[in-house]
Amino acid sequence: MLAVMPGRISYVVGFDDFPFEHAHRSDVFVVGAVYAGVRLDGILRGTVRRDGANATSALADLVARSKFAGSIQLVMLQGIALAGFNVVDIHSLSRRLSLPVLVVTRRPPNMETIRGTLLTHVRGGARKWRIIGRTGPMEPVAGVWVQRAGISLHDAGDVISRFAIHGNIPEPLRAAHLIASGIGSGQSRGRV
Q1: Left (φ > 0), alpha (ψ -120 to 50) or beta: where does 136 sit?
Q2: Of 16, 26, 38, 40, which is closest to residue 182 (Cα–Cα)?
Q3: Please, what is the end-to-end C-alpha distance for the chain in angstroms?
Q4: CB 108 within 8 A of CB 45
Q5: Residue 186 region, left (φ>0) first, then alpha (ψ -120 to 50), else beta?
Q6: Do residues 184 and 18 make contact, with C-beta atoms less than 8 angstroms apart?
Q7: What distance in Å separates the CA atoms of residue 131 and residue 73, rounded to the nearest whole number?
Q8: 131-165, pLDDT tens digit by residue?
Q9: CA gap 42, 47 in Å, rounded
Q10: Cα(147)–Cα(135) distance, integer angstroms
Q11: Domains and their CATH numbers in the chain
């Protein structure tokens, strides 16, 4: 585990991607909502390739080069992939940033469907499936499902409980989703 203690984690960035066209391969914007406690403290914006292989490096660079780099104590993701199937290697991201990484979803995805899609329809799908396999299974905690790197399940539950103000999804992810969907499609939509 990394050196940051969960009770002291108060500066978090949560990422989500913009809505995107499924018809063609292009760059997709991602947004990071940076929170200091329960206060929105800043926004990060970058891009990842739709169904590409650069999500891990793009997020690492975005966080490391931001003015918030010295303050951020935890990275949260809304699912393990951005822009379709651009899979984030959360263990690599955690090592690169020396920060814990926490994937949060309302419910576990259908892994057999994901595996089938990756192996039959996505370029580099076998490599992406191996990354997902190394990430480990989703685990229930604090009313959501998580995958984690650099943080225990107990500590992940503590962090989620402290940042989940308006439901089960932590505010950094909820805000990132609202910002991404609002800017990307003209108005925010749907639940996180």
Answers
A1: left
A2: 16
A3: 28
A4: no
A5: left
A6: yes
A7: 23
A8: 999 999 999 999 999 999 999 999 999 999 999 99
A9: 17
A10: 7
A11: 9-183 (3.30.2170.10)
